[in-house]
Amino acid sequence: MPPISRTTIAAAALAILVTLAVYAQTVHFDYVSWDDPNNIVNNPHLNRKGGPDFDFYWNHTYLFVYRPLIYTLWSAIASVSRLPHPIHAPGLGDVNFDPHAFHLVNLLLHCANTFLVFVILRRLVKRDWPALAGAVLFSVHPLQTESVAWITAGNELLFGFFALLAILQYVKYAESPEAPGREANPGRQLWHYFWAFVCFMLAVFSKPTAVSVALLLWGLDVFGLRRPWKQVTLGLIPWILAGAVMVAVASVARQVAAINVVSPYWGRPFVAGDTLAFFLYKLLAPVGLAIDYGRTPSYVLDHPWGFMTWLVPVAVCVLVWRSRKNAPLLAGAVALFVLGLVPVLGLLINPFQLYSTAADRYVYLPMLGPALAAACLTSRIRPGQSQSAAQIAGVAVVLIGLTVLNGVSHVPDFRDSVALYKHTSAANPASWTSFMNLGVYYKDAGDLDAAQTNLEQTLRLEPNFPSAHMDLALVLEQKGDIDGALAQIRAAMPYAANDPAYHYKLALLLSRKALYDEAMTEYQTALQLSPNNGEYEYNEGSAQIAMHKLDAAVATLRRALLDRAPNPEKAHNQIGVALAQQNQTDAAVAEWRMAIAINPNYPDPHYNIGAALTQQHRAQEANAEYRAALQIDPNYTRARQALGL
């Protein structure tokens, strides 16, 4: 390990400055509706009156994954970034936390990781400027953008931080005692080994697939550092055992989450080979990058080329294997890249395979392999020799080109949901989930025509996705097309028969068409699937009033109150309506008075009391109630008509 010099400090500083030049813009980015709502915006364990629940994530899985450390970090950020007032954002809901704080932490983590990569590469290649070249490649390659510019992918950055610390400590442990400037010191070696294992476990608690770090270290040690494979394997047994426990915990949750992914066992090696070939292609030609490539197992296995693409990575591995003795660090670089990707290549089911087996964020840590390869190749350039100037210029052109391409073209695609999904749908026109998310965004923003266009495109690409049918039904309902909305919910029912929300929505639409008998069947089915649901019971009771089943309506509405209907004042108001139709005026007025007591700003019970008083020829008192309704809502039409206004 060469001593630290001014050149070393300058090289490390330059790597950080380049990182900031490319990614500083992300601090001003917004949330995107791709998983940010589930993890941050609408996470019930972050959005609590008493502050985030730090303990929950250590005792439970969340979203089918056990990764408590990243949720602890997000909880800490949420604790200091709460907005004075919630801001409603289309596609996100009510936003309580400043997204800039989360983006800032992502940026700082990536800067720290870039520095660690520089330190690791310098330790391996023993030179500053080649280490700088590799660190810059690691930092600015467009494949890294998804992990840095997307808040939810912060788990890749945190996992990468601890994994890189583990790698650095492990390299110090595994280095030969005969190396220049190093004396045999078994105690120090064990200390480095201990800290490497601690950092490995922290990485695992950040992301379960961090178990790949053990494989990655095995490849680097055996091929790059050239220690005997038996000795390396024996030293990594504790890592493997600890990783196996985490895999067992994670696999149960992931299998539940991945239940809709179709990937036959016989086809998984082909899927893995294709995914690795795809990553190699994007590594060399980082264009057309997207958050959803649509490269699902079924897509790969449905095409003849899906059974051939594995030949590309195999050929690369064979070439490296044959040159492993003459270029051990290059062999180690390939091992870092390939073995680091093993858990996400499709050999094991991954819930994201519903959209694509390949995703840019999976390459975040394995990018250390290409970075090491770049450092090794650059270290062969000797200034002063023939062609060295051209070689240095070539390296500079490649790195500057990647920096500009990423900072100008790719990073801005993550600034908000619309930019992200428009870019993704342009890069992958078959990305039904991009059109789906655009549709939901425009629906929430009130642009119903754009919402309908995108949701209809979603269903052309994925006709069996019930959520798209539901959202399109909501759009059509807002546009007044009740028949169209009904058709969409009916189309979704074969795929959502066990979801009470679909039966409930169908019942509401049927009620609007006065098809009450059918509506009652759907209400009952919804309540069988979701018993004691006060909201469902309230609307069922309202439909029973329309059917003149007044005794049943009163019973249903009282049950809704017991089951904590969302708006109890409305339930009392409807009970009053039912009682009034049974000529139980005094009881009806009592219910309306209770409704007013619960919500003094609710005009309907005032009007209903006024109507009852009018029937009793108590005009002065009735007019007072009508005026009370108008005071709450000056545009209350029936009250204005009753007063002759």
Walk me through this protein's architecture.
Residues 178-182 have low confidence and may be disordered. The protein starts with 5 loop residues before the first helix and ends with a helix. By secondary structure, it is mainly α. Helix 6 runs antiparallel to helix 17. The longest helix has 27 residues, at 99-125. It has helices spanning 6-23, 36-41, 56-59, 68-80, 99-125, 128-140, 145-149, 154-174, 186-206, 212-225, 229-235, 237-257, 268-284, 297-301, 311-322, 328-341, 368-379, 388-410, 417-427, 432-445, 448-461, 466-478, 482-492, 500-512, 516-529, 534-546, 550-562, 568-581, 585-598, 604-615, 619-632, 637-642; strands at residues 82-89, 93-97. The chain has a domain at 6-78 and 97-263 and 277-413. It has a two-stranded antiparallel sheet with strand order 1-2.
Summarize the model shown.
By secondary structure, the protein is mostly helical.
* Strands, total number: 2
What is the typical, i.e. mean, pLDDT?
90
Structural class: mainly alpha
Please give the count of helices: 32
Which key phrases capture this entry?
645 residues, mainly alpha, 32 helices, 2% strand, elongated
Question: How are the SSEs placed, and which strands pair?
Answer:
Layout: H1 6-23, H2 36-41, H3 56-59, H4 68-80, E1 82-89, E2 93-97, H5 99-125, H6 128-140, H7 145-149, H8 154-174, H9 186-206, H10 212-225, H11 229-235, H12 237-257, H13 268-284, H14 297-301, H15 311-322, H16 328-341, H17 368-379, H18 388-410, H19 417-427, H20 432-445, H21 448-461, H22 466-478, H23 482-492, H24 500-512, H25 516-529, H26 534-546, H27 550-562, H28 568-581, H29 585-598, H30 604-615, H31 619-632, H32 637-642
Antiparallel strand pairs: 1-2
Helix pairs in contact: 1-5, 1-6, 1-18, 4-9, 5-6, 5-8, 5-17, 6-17, 6-18, 8-9, 8-10, 9-12, 10-16, 13-15, 16-17, 19-20, 20-21, 20-22, 21-22, 22-23, 23-24, 24-25, 24-26, 25-26, 26-27, 26-28, 27-28, 28-29, 28-30, 29-30, 30-31
